[in-house]
Amino acid sequence: MSKLRRREFLMAGVAAAAIAGLPKMARAQATRSLRIGMSATNVNSLDPRRSVQNADNFVQRQIYDSLLDPPYGTFDLDYADVVTELAESWQVSPDSKTWTVKLKQGVQFQKDAGELTSEDVKFTYDTIMDKTTGSTQRVYITDLESVEAVDKYQVKFHLNKPNPNFHASGLISIIGSIVPKSVAGTMTMEQYARQPVGTGPYEVAGTVSGGGVTLKAFEKYHGKKPEIDTVEFRYMADPTARTLALLKGDLDIIEGARLPGWVGQLKQQMPNVVIDQTRPGSINTLYFNMSMKPFDDIRVRKALRYGIDRNTIITAFGGIAGPAWGINPPEFPGGFKETELPEELRYNYDPEKAKALLAEAGHGDGLKFEIIMTQREDYASIMLMVQDMWREIGVDMTIRTIDHTTYHAEKDKNVNAIVLQSSTFAPVSTQIPVTYYRSGAEVKSDGSGDQNYSHYGAIGGPGVDDLLDQALAEGDLAKRQEIVRQAELKILADMPAFTICTLSFVYARNPRLDLGFDVKAGYARYRLGGAKFTS
After folding, report:
1. 389 with 350: CB under 8 angstroms?
2. Average pLDDT for 313-333
3. Which subcellular locations apply to this protein (predicted)?
4. Amino acid 279: pLDDT
5. Which of the 8 DSSP states describes residue 85?
């Protein structure tokens, strides 16, 4: 058995260990409490302006309303179909540079924080745009010039470039989740992260602890009051513990273990389980840190790319994984399909070519380095398979595993030679290249930078800043997508990073719980305000 086959076998074994031998699903007791197990160790931040992990985002989606959102369970961004949560109505100027939102009147904040007004919206976005706050959402609204509170219930967003997709990049959750100025304006983000106040269907009950969050229905919610009174989020990094709790009936929803074979194993033990699966889900990309040797050498970067068999990884994950040939996944408007790329930019698996490039770069005797990596199963599974593949071409990558929250903090300090980032975006062609490939977005050692982990455009050539500027200035969507495709081709040629695969977000749900909609696409979170138990 080859090393790679052994790794696939071992990873499948981990999935099986999370399922095999566990008891069949117990009959859950009637209860008004909805219990959810999330793949994380500790609460990081419940401030939507500064949020880095899926578990926190799921909790936030219940606490906060967004200005707008796609129809629940979808990523449908057609203007006519967008859901208005805090907005009563909205308009776009002919040049797509001014977006006017009229707020619903009488919407109350939790914890007696008063009525939602345009000043709260302006405050939320002003703090996101302020570079000193370190907001993780700022990268999504780089084209936002200013926010104007026209009157008590009307807000205008002034963009410095036309953007017909600003609703998708700047007004939907979590970016469009509004915090109260009267509360958040009196605290630091660190303080507010543990004392969140929103307008959503649920509010925090009691104190936010490290290992979980309990929410209760918000009595003054402006929409339909939730049918389920209490929601308990339990942070459980161990996939075996989450799976066992679902099978025993202790949890109603769990964040699935994105491990090879996990879904199939779970269905064997719990045939009636409901699997909520998004497409394309997360986009899993490896970034070469070109500020560190030898990753400043394009031959090394291309060698490592040729040394990865994407098909083996996708096959190992089964039906939850999919291919990505360019920077944007093929499900995105304008995303590249395999046949649309020149042969040399497809980087099909070729270990002999990888070895030859390493030798040419002076690493014929091998290459050795260490990275830090999160323990979260989807990240860990991918990197363990990559580690084995790279051994086949003479590359020895040592993986030092840390918890998921710490990993997110550390990778943003320019400490890793290679960064694996799992990200989810609305299907807007400009968002991924603007977030990760603009020179001005490079990561910094003090943590004050953004998410260009490769330092692309700042090191090793001009990058694609000019093309991205052209795309962002273009109001015609088809023309904008074509410019982005030109940028993608250059990124693929320069190889500062590459997308390994997409992974559907997977949640396993007790069939007695009805969400009120089907989950087809979207972020790794969904609304629970309309959920109900059917038995």
Report:
1. no
2. 92
3. Periplasm
4. 85
5. S
Q: Structural domain tally of the chain? A: 2
Q: Residue 58 belongs to what domain range?
A: 33-252+510-533
The average pLDDT across 385-398 equals 97
416: which 2 tokens? 């890793």
Bond into 174 cis (ω within 30): yes
SS3 422: strand
pLDDT in tens, 177-210: 999 999 999 999 999 999 999 999 999 998 887 7
Task: Please list the residues that pair with 487 across neighbouring strands.
Answer: none
Any domain includes 1: no
CA distance 110 to 58: 18
Q: Give dist(CA 335, CA 338) in Å, integer.
A: 10
Residue 532 parent element (H or E): strand 532-533
Average pLDDT over residues 466-480: 92
Same domain, yes or no, for 528 and 385?
A: no
Q: What is the pTM (predicted TM-score) of this model?
A: 0.80
pLDDT grade, residue 514 (50/70/90)?
very high
Provide the CATH number for the domain around residue 145.
3.40.190.10
- Are 449 and 489 contained in the same domain? yes
Do 48 and 96 lie in one domain? The reply is: yes
Q: DSSP code of 139? A: G
Are residues 422 and 454 located together in one domain of the fold? yes
Both structure tokens of 265 = 């194993």
pLDDT of res. 11? 52
The residue length of the chain stands at: 535
Say if CB 167 and CB 99 are below 8 A apart.
yes
Read off the pLDDT of each residue in 148-173 and give the average, rounded to a whole number.
95
Q: Where does residue 210 rank: exposed (0-12), middle (13-18), buried (19+ CB within 10 A)?
A: exposed
